[in-house]
UniProtKB/TrEMBL annotation:
<keyword id="KW-0067">ATP-binding</keyword>
<dbReference type="InterPro" id="IPR030616">
    <property type="entry name" value="Aur-like"/>
</dbReference>
<dbReference type="InterPro" id="IPR000719">
    <property type="entry name" value="Prot_kinase_dom"/>
</dbReference>
<dbReference type="GO" id="GO:0005524">
    <property type="term" value="F:ATP binding"/>
</dbReference>
<feature type="binding site">
    <location>
        <position position="99"/>
    </location>
    <ligand>
        <name>ATP</name>
    </ligand>
</feature>
<feature type="active site" description="Proton acceptor">
    <location>
        <position position="214"/>
    </location>
</feature>
<keyword id="KW-0723">Serine/threonine-protein kinase</keyword>
<feature type="binding site">
    <location>
        <begin position="218"/>
        <end position="219"/>
    </location>
    <ligand>
        <name>ATP</name>
    </ligand>
</feature>
<feature type="cross-link" description="Glycyl lysine isopeptide (Lys-Gly) (interchain with G-Cter in SUMO2)">
    <location>
        <position position="216"/>
    </location>
</feature>
<dbReference type="InterPro" id="IPR017441">
    <property type="entry name" value="Protein_kinase_ATP_BS"/>
</dbReference>
<feature type="binding site">
    <location>
        <begin position="167"/>
        <end position="169"/>
    </location>
    <ligand>
        <name>ATP</name>
    </ligand>
</feature>
<feature type="binding site">
    <location>
        <position position="118"/>
    </location>
    <ligand>
        <name>ATP</name>
    </ligand>
</feature>
<keyword id="KW-0418">Kinase</keyword>
<dbReference type="Pfam" id="PF00069">
    <property type="entry name" value="Pkinase"/>
</dbReference>
<dbReference type="GO" id="GO:0004674">
    <property type="term" value="F:protein serine/threonine kinase activity"/>
</dbReference>
<feature type="region of interest" description="Disordered">
    <location>
        <begin position="1"/>
        <end position="20"/>
    </location>
</feature>
<protein>
    <recommendedName>
        <fullName>Protein kinase domain-containing protein</fullName>
    </recommendedName>
</protein>
Length: 330
């Protein structure tokens, strides 16, 4: 089953900015999904009262480096990791599962404060040669301290797992709350409030030369009415342009899809896709259609202007400062 499309959306005339034809686009995406070893479907549990399960296609792309010599997978991170701190916590219940492991709600015995602990199976990591990726996720998340970013509190290992202790987000994912809205979309004022907070987090990441590379509703959490970015599993920090293919298909920028060099503006593309999804209940680009942008008539001129500034080719894409000063966010 595909992502849910909003039911009665009519459209205004499309703006197509990318020169590749639709056929080329679907061919490239076909190759990407064939090349990735990933599970093509990710389920998201709808929080509807009737407890219906809703699926959406979440083809998440495994990291594919175009230069295999650049992959250094066997970095040993064990030496410096504190051990066995799990005994200080009471593990209460599983609250999620991600790319590498399971996430549990936990209580720190001493303070009775709640945390989320992401437990990552050491054998799985080793088998998939992803130790370096965990190392990067931990290093990046330790660096980031911002009200709209989930704080990494500590990192340790047990016999079988690496454990990331994270600030506990009380309100679930943005995807779950989106599914609860009428027509699975937010009103523009509500969406604007969310997008502004995500934009603040992106600004902080850019100031620290960090690219998240997988921004989407599933990786955005609610914590006491505030938005917090999470899951830095695909993040990188440096100023160089990159060409590794990773992320989630509906949110991939054209430069990434077409194998060009990219930079931190891919997070701004994702912000544009997120704005579209929050205000319409669906993502803007379907595999078969390429990057043709069509807006439902009910959207305001301001939000369309914001999205046009982001959902465009890298050269013309607006900056995070432009976004934060945009009238739709005021
Ligand atoms: P991740 O591995 O980061 O993608 O997390 C998988 C799932 O675990 C998320 O979709 C959330 O449902 C849940 N989760 C992750 N981090 C937290 C957190 N800090 N607080 C509450 N739930 C979380």
């Amino acid at each position: 089953m595909k992502r849910q499309n909003s039911a009665n959306a009519t459209t205004t005339s499309p703006s197509k900015f990318f020169s590749n034809t639709s056929n080329q686009f679907s061919e490239i995406l076909k190759q990407i999904t064939q090349n990735s070893n990933n599970k093509p479907m990710r389920k998201a549990c709808s929080p509807n009262s009737n407890n219906q399960m809703q699926k959406r296609v979440k083809t998440q792309i495994t990291s594919i480096s175009r230069n295999p010599n650049l992959n250094i997978h066997n970095k040993n991170i064990s030496a410096s990791v504190p051990k066995n701190k799990l005994e200080y916590y009471q593990v209460l219940e599983q609250i999620g599962s991600g790319k590498f492991g399971k996430v549990y709600k936990c209580l720190l015995n001493q303070t009775k404060k709640l945390y989320a602990i992401k437990m990552i199976d050491k054998l799985y990591l080793k088998k998939n040669q992803m130790l370096h990726q965990l190392h990067r996720e931990v290093a990046i998340q330790q660096m980031l301290k911002h009200q709209n970013i989930i704080q990494l509190v500590e990192f340790f290992e047990t016999t079988n797992n690496y454990c990331l202790v994270l600030e506990y987000a009380t309100g679930g994912t943005l995807f779950q709350s989106l599914m609860k809205q009428n027509n699975r979309r937010y009103s523009e004022p509500a969406a604007s409030n969310i997008i502004k907070q995500v934009a603040c987090a992106i600004q902080q990441m850019q100031q620290q030369s960090i690219i998240h590379r997988d921004l989407k509703p599933e990786n955005i959490l609610w914590c006491n009415g505030q938005i917090k970015i999470s899951d830095f599993g695909w993040s990188v920090q440096d100023k160089k342009e990159r060409d590794t293919l990773c992320g989630t298909i509906d949110y991939l920028s054209p430069e990434m899809v077409f194998g060009q060099q990219y930079d931190n503006s891919i997070d701004l593309w994702s912000l544009g896709v997120l704005t579209f999804e929050l205000t319409t209940g669906r993502t803007p680009f379907q595999v078969q259609e390429g990057f043709t942008l069509q807006f439902p008539d009910y959207l305001s001129g301001d939000v369309k202007d914001l999205m046009k500034g982001l959902l465009t080719d890298k050269k013309n894409r607006k900056s995070i400062e432009w976004v934060l000063n945009h009238v739709w966010l005021s």
